Every structure is written in structure tokens, then in C-alpha cells.
Amino acid sequence: MSQRADTAPPKKKSAPNSTFTAALFELRRSPGAIFSVVIIILVVVCAIGANVIAPFDPQEQDLAMRLLPPGTVGPEGRHRWLGTDALGRDVLSGVIYGTRISLTVALSAVVLGLGLGLLLGVLSGYYRGWVDVVIMRAVDVTIVMPFFLMALVLRIALGPGLGSIIVALGVSGWALYARLVRGEVLSLRNREYVLASQSAGANSWYIMMRRITPHVMPSLVVFASLQVGVVIVAEASLTFLGLGVPPDVPSWGTMLATGRDYLVRAWWVATFPGIAIVLTVLALNVFGDWLRDVRDPRLG
Predict the structure, then answer these.
(1) Of 12, 151, 180, 263, whose CB neighbour count within 10 A is largest?
(2) Is residue 3 in a domain?
């Protein structure tokens, strides 16, 4: 008569059982992704807490303090860690406040473009026929024109203001989202759960919004994370040309435009906002690539 074992065999360690847990598990294996997350968190914190973090008012002018090099101690005993510009404004405070403006413009434009692209892409892929033809011809016409050139034309047409540059950048990017969504919808419209909803008598809007859109969003979010960096560069470029954020609003592009005449005499005025743009865009691109690889490891 065999005796029963007193202890059960040890259980095998289970793999991460949720998307979030799996993402964290993969994050620990990617130093580049960790770096990008740290930079993104720092940028978001600066954008939200600019009023608390910035040591000075970014618009406060003092001609007696103009073009001071980084690390200079002012008469009141406070450091200008990144120096001052031609009007005596603190560069560090401008970079911190510029984070808020640049990130707000970029995120708002991406959300606008994503919303338009999602709606039109779902309509195009689901209905097919003449709806698909009209929307895709509009996509082709939009994509033919370079993103920055279209944003420039729309910015001039819409006139000055922060809202106009958001609309210009958002509308300029909708076609890329629409084309991506259409491809996803074409592969989903004949799935069993979609056909079952159609057989049950569900209306088209319900099927598109509740049965198809949730499956499209992961790919769309990954693509949008990459586009944020593109929009940040486009906003800074338009502002550098004098067609972006108004001059009285502190942004990275405004600081670049202000410092271009002092690159030899006062390199820090344009260098530090330029570094902020490079680090932010690099972090967003690395993070977007990591998200893509996590979602589909075969693309890595």
C-alpha cells in the first residue's frame, strides 16, 4: 500500500497574468525604457508644478541681470542656475514653464488628430464603398503634403493664438491616424463577435464604438505616443519662425527664437531649451518603441 505524500509538489512560478504586470516586467529589462519613463515623469511634473518648481517668474525682466552665465548669483543671493537671457529673464524658469506650454500644445494637438482620425478611419473601414473612397482620397491628399508645411499653411489661415496652433497641428496629423485605424478595422469587421452583434440586430454605431474601437485603441495609443514628439518639434519650429506660440507665452520654441541672436555671446539662452526638446522627444520615441515591442514582440 503506497503512502500518500505529505507535501504537494512545488508549483511552477506563473508568468505575469495581466497586461500591466507584463509591461512592468518588461520595463525592468529595458534600461532605455526606464530612462524614457524617468524623463517623461520629470517633464510631466515640471508641467504640472511649474508654479512651485520654477525659482522665478519666467516673464520677470531685469536688464541689469541680462545675459548672465549659468551659475551666477544675483544681488539678492539667488542663483541663476542656467543663466539669464537678453531681457534678464531666468532661463531655468523659462525652460520649466516652457514644458507646460509645449506639452499642452502637443498633447492637445495629438488628441485632436487622434479623435478625427479614429472617427474617419472607423467609418472608412466599416462601411467601405463610397465612404471609404471619399475618406481615403482625402487621406491621400493630406499625406502628400508634408506635415510641417500643412501645419504652417493652416496656422497662417487660422490666425494668431494658442488655440489656432493646436488646431493646425491636430488637423495636419489626422490622416496618419485614419489610415492606421482603417487597416485595423478591415481586419476586425469580419470577426465572430462583430458578426454576432450584427446578427443580433445591433446598430452600426454600437458595433463600431463598442465592438471595434476598443480593439483599435492599443495600436492607436502606441502610434500617438510617437507622434507627441513630432508635434513638439513642429510647435517649436513654428514658434521659432514666429508663427507658433505668441511671444508673451513662455515656450521652448520662443526661447530658441530669442536666443538665436546670442549663440556666440550667450550660448545658454538657446542651448538649454534645445536640450529640453531633444531629451523629451528622444524619451517619447524610446517609450513609444518600447510600447510597440511590448504589444507585439515580433516587431522588436
Answers:
(1) 151
(2) no
